[in-house]
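[#protein-structures] MJ: dropping G-protein coupled receptors family 1 profile domain-containing protein here for a structure pass
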Amino acid sequence: MYFSLEHLHYRSWNISNNPLTHIYEDQFDMFVNLQSLSIEDVDIPNISIQMFRSLSNLSHIYFKKFEYCGYSPNVRSCKPKTDGISTFENLLANIILRVFVWVVAFIICFGNISVICLRSCIASENQHHTMAIISLCCADCLMGVYLFFIGAFDIKYCGEYNRHAQLWMESLQCQLIGCLAMLSTEVSVMLLTYMTLEKYLCIVFPFHNYRAGRKQTLCYLIFIWVLGFIIAVIPFWDKQTFGNYYGRNGVCFPLHSDEMEKPGARCYSTGIFLGLNLFAFVIIVFSYTSMFYSVQKTAKTARQFVYNKEVSIAKRFFFIVFTDAMCWTPIFLLKILSLLQVEIAGTIVLWVVIFILPINSALNPILYTITTSSFQERLKLCLKAKCKQTGLRETSQKVFEVYQNPSPPP
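AK: finished. structure tokens for G-protein coupled receptors family 1 profile domain-containing protein:
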């Protein structure tokens, strides 16, 4: 592109709708008097902060994409003002989501920590299952921690997010909390699959001799956590292949692909969400369908009370599969659409990350612990035993007081 000497004194300059294929880092260095710059409809794949550093008087800039605004942190006004995830002022674009990120985080952490405490205090006949449930609660709790961090940084950058946007997305904090969310998601998916297969073998093949012992269960759980950790940290190993994998948006979660994403990162993300997670979802749906069929077949010749039990099992299975489908189907669709380069509003991505992705983390304590009849029975027995102990202590105390202070003879 040719620039005449006259251009150097311009205060406002519009070069939108030009067939530009490349903008050099020093392209605007001579335009120190420029106050308004419009480069709408121009893709800048090599954009950097250095491009606009010399424009000290620049107050208004107009880009094609909101994410470019982070590379001009000193301007007073940048358009577009939002990508649906973040705005020029705030990390989280929607005031409702800015409030509910804290609500969802609290529900997840409170529910899972409560189950961990209850499961640890109440003795269970199936210790291996309890170990898996506690492990699942720990994984789900990490999702709550991730949401707390997003809420905290949203407050930190409130009113001036664009000044810190690029530094935030490239920061170690963003990378670590994105890694934390990925670890939580993948470990939770793999643990649910493991627990489903274990239940599937017990119900569909009740007479087989294989039962995982304590050591085997512990080995499975450790393997799942190690595998989840490896999946989460692989993008840190090779920046050339993955680029800024977790820093593609303000919420630091690699759910949505765009044309600026590196091919290696896109392939890896697709392999995780449409490979591993979709495969796990299919296994869970198939296993619970087979379990329901097996229970129904067994109960055909049984009496009414068995039929009632079958109905309750069917309801439970339905809610487990339904919540999994409610959580993962939108994510699968979102990933497929982004790969097909269908334009997806950032607001949808934000709702998915804040509300839909954490659904399982919030509901797993209810589905796998609080609503189970075996846990409720053990809790009742535990409470009765506590009440009896309390009653015995009070009676003993009263008898002791009588002996210590005998009533005077008449």
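MJ: nice. The chain is about 60% helix and 5% strand.
AK: one more thing. The two ends are 117 Å apart (CA to CA).
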